[in-house]
Amino acid sequence: MDEKKAAILGEIPRLRRYARSLLRDRDAADDLVQDCLERALVRLDNWQTGESPRRWLFTIMHHLFIDQMRKVNRRGEAAMLPLEAGEAVARPAEQVESIASREIIDALQAISPDRRAALVMVAIEGFSYAEAANILGVPAGTLMSRIARGREELRGLLDDTARRRAIRIVEK
């Protein structure tokens, strides 16, 4: 039992990375990871000993994400309340990010969740098309279509961002 728990704990960085790619909010991503781990530990007997828990955990997380998106669609978008002037606290950035990587992350967040999930599973997490299709619960052809359309959409968004940045530089 302890071996299973240790194997699951080893997957937390990958789960966190995938959750943050699905959800733009770090706190919401951490909540998704927590929910995934909680469900995995409750259903630990469903995992086959000897296999990597990675595919099993990603499937759990994806299903939780889809459930969460359905709830948001039923109830409507959650609105963020503006901070009062005295509540806003400035603090230094925790991590310095280059402009290019920020633009890529923003573009990735701008594409549809289905395409984003497919791209992240294959391009970032390294799952095969068959594994990713199984985790996402779609046929392999649908997955490949989502990846192709997601890549095209990313290219368009990144080209547009580069053009706008070039225009700003020229205007100055």
From TrEMBL:
Highest taxon, organism lineage: Bacteria
Pfam hit, one: PhyR_sigma2
UniProt xrefs under Gene3D superfamilies: 1.10.1740.10, Winged helix-like DNA-binding domain superfamily/Winged helix DNA-binding domain (1.10.10.10)
Domain RNA polymerase sigma factor 70 region 4 type: 102-154
Domain PhyR sigma2: 9-62
Keywords: Sigma factor, Transcription, Transcription regulation
SUPFAM superfamilies for the chain: Sigma2 domain of RNA polymerase sigma factors, Sigma3 and sigma4 domains of RNA polymerase sigma factors
Stored NCBIfam families: sigma70-ECF (TIGR02937)
UniProt record similarity statement: Belongs to the sigma-70 factor family. ECF subfamily.
Protein name: Sigma-70 family RNA polymerase sigma factor
Annotated organism of origin: Mesorhizobium cantuariense
